[in-house]
Amino acid sequence: MFPKIYYLKDRMTRPLRCYGGVLLAISNNDSFRIREGEEVREISIALINEGNLFQIQESNVVMFYFSSTIILEKLGIDVFKNDLRVNSEVLLQNQLISLFDYYKKQALDTQKAINLLNDIMNNLLKDQKKMTKASNELLSGILEYIIEYLNIKITLEDISKQFYISTSNISSLFKNYFHISFYEYVTSLRVAKSISDLRTTKLNVETISLNRGYSNATNYIIHFKKYVGITPKKYRMIPNESGFLKIKEVESDWNVIQTYDFEEKNLYKHTHISLNDEEILQSSFSYFNLIDIGGYKNLDLILDEQIFNYKNFDNYKLDSYIYINDAVDNFITEKREEQSLKLRKLLKTKVSIALKINSLESLKLIEKLVADLHFLESEHLSSSNIRNGNILLLLDSNNIKNLDINKIQRNLYETRVFISVDITDSYIKNKEILTHQIYTLNPDYYHINFDSINNGMQKSYDDFDEFHRNLNAFLENIQAYKNIIFLNYEKIYPSDVLKNIGKFLEVSLYSKKYLAGSSIHFNKSSENQISIFDEIENKTLFFHIGIMLLNFSKYRCFYGESYIITKNMHGYNILLFNSDSKIADENDEHTHVFYINFQNSRISNDVIISEELLNSDYGSIDGIVSSEIENRKIFPDSLKYKLSQYNSPKLSVNKYNQKTGSYTVKLPPRSVVMLTIYL
C-alpha cells in the first residue's frame, strides 16, 4: 500500500524511464538538478510521471515510488492516461518528510501514517497527457511521429524518409538532446506503454508484445527485463509490489535508509488563491496622497521643472494634493508679495493643493488669491484651469476656536474646498470620543500628525504592531471610516519595514478601513525615508507601489493573506506581496509561492498574464547603480534621465490556460508582484 522508498547515494549516470508508477523525489538541500527529457531544471521537489524520461543529477536525494495500483486505488486515476502534478510543493515536501519519519520508525501501518498517505495523494492533481514536445522543431516532429506509430515497427530509415534527414543526424539528435540512443528511446517507451496492458487487461504476453510493435514476444521479454528488472509474467503476478526502479545508484535496504536524516529545511510559505468573481465584493483600496514639498520656499521644485518631465504632476496618475507643510500664517509675514505670486502660479496648475491654516487672516488670503486668479484669467481666457484642482485646508483645532467653519466657502469659483481638522491631541490622550467642538465643525476629514507623537519611532516591530492595534481601536471608536488622513506616518515605522516594500504594503493595509489619505515626501532627504523621488530625482519603490495600488482604487476588491484581487471590464489585477525580511542573495531566491486557481472566474481559454516584480533590484536605482558609487548627486542630468527610463519593475508576459492547473508565482522576499490578467 505504501510507496517504496529509495536513497540516491550517487548522481544517476544515465537517463531512465519511470515504469508503472509515479516517482516523487526531495533532497536534503534546498534544491537539486534533474534532467527530464531534454530539459535540465533545478527544483526543490520532483514529480516524475509513469513513462517519463528522467535523470537526477545530484546525490543525497530521497525517492518515493508509488505504483500504479496505489494511485488507482486511492485516487481513481489511470496513470497511464493522465499526468500528475503537484498542487502545493511546500506542503508536499513536509508531508513526504513526515512519511519518511514513519518509515524509519516502521510505523507505516498506523492510522496517522495512513491519513498522511491519503493527504499526499490529495495533494496531486491529474491532467490528461500531452503530446511530447521538444524545443527543436525537427525533433518535436519526430517525437510526435514515434508516438503515433509506436505500436508498429519504427526504424531509423523510416524516420529518415519521413523527415528528409540522414540516419546519422537522427542518432545525433537523440544523443544530444536525450543522452540515449534512438533505439533505446523507442524500446524503453514501448516497455513503459506496455505496462498499462499488463495492469489493466488480461491479454497474454505475446499479444501485448505484438500490439506494442514487437515482431515476437522474445524481444519484448528481453527488453522488459532489461528496463524493469523482472519478466512481464512475474510483474503481473505481484501487482501490489511498489518497487520497480532499476537504478544502480540507489540504495533500498531499510537498515541503510533508516540512518538518513532530513536536516531542518527552510521551506517557503505557500498561499492558494481561488479567483472567484462572487467573492470580490469588498470596498476598493482608494486613498489620496498629500505630496509634501516642505515649505513655501520649495515651490520652485514643482513650478520650474524643466529637465525631468516625468516629475511633472500632470503625469502623476494618483489622486494627489501638493502639500505645503508650512502654515499659511508663516509665509504671510515673509516676502508676502513674492510668495503670493508663487502660490498664485501654483493655483493656476491643474493639480490640487493642501494648505495648513491657523487663523482667519490666512484663510481670507487664500480666498483672495483664488478670487484674484479667477477674475484675472476670466478676462484673458475662455475658461480657467483652476476648476481641475481642489483645495484641502488642514485646520489646527487648537488655533481656530473662534473660526466658524460653516462660514468657510466650500466652492470658490468652481474650485472645491475640503476641510480637515487635526485630532492628534485627541489620539495622544486616547479619547474615545472627539470633543463637541470638533464634531460641530463637521469637517470632511480628520488628520493625525505623527510627527507630534511623543513616543516617536517604535523600538521594535512588536511595539509597532501593538501601536497599530491601538491606533485602529481609536479610529474605530470615533468611527473614522474612510475619512482619516495620516501626516508624517513614516515617523512611527520601524526601519526594517521601510526597507521592505512587501512589509510596507502589508502594514499599509492595516488601516484600509479608515484611511482617506496620507502624506509622502516629494524628494528624499536625510530627514525622511518615504518619498516618491530619491536623492537624484529618480522614482522610488514608493512611487511604483502607488501606481500599482491605483488599479485597486476604482473597483471592488478581495483582501486575502498577502494578496489583493480586483476585476474590471478588461480583466483582473492581483497584487501579491512577500513581507519576509530575509535578504536574498539572488533575485530568484523565493520564500513564498502563490498558486492561483481560476476555475470560478470569467477565465475560460488561453489568457495573457503580465507580471511586474517590484523590489530593491527592480523599481529602485539601487539595482542599477553600483554600491561603490557613494555620491550619486554628482550624476549629470543626462545620466539621471537615462536612469529614469530604465528604473521600473521587472516586466514579464506569459500565456496561461487553466487546464494546465494553478498559475504559480514564486515571489522573492521583500518583494511585490502585480499580475494583470487580460481577457
Automatic annotation (TrEMBL):
The keyword Transcription applies. It comes from the Bacteria. Keywords: DNA-binding, Transcription, Transcription regulation. The keyword Transcription regulation applies. SMART domains: HTH_ARAC (SM00342). InterPro entries: Homeodomain-like_sf (IPR009057), HTH_AraC (IPR018060), HTH_AraC-typ_CS (IPR018062). Pfam families: HTH_18. PANTHER family: ARAC-FAMILY TRANSCRIPTIONAL REGULATOR, HTH-TYPE TRANSCRIPTIONAL REGULATOR EXSA. This is Helix-turn-helix transcriptional regulator. It comes from Staphylococcus marylandisciuri.
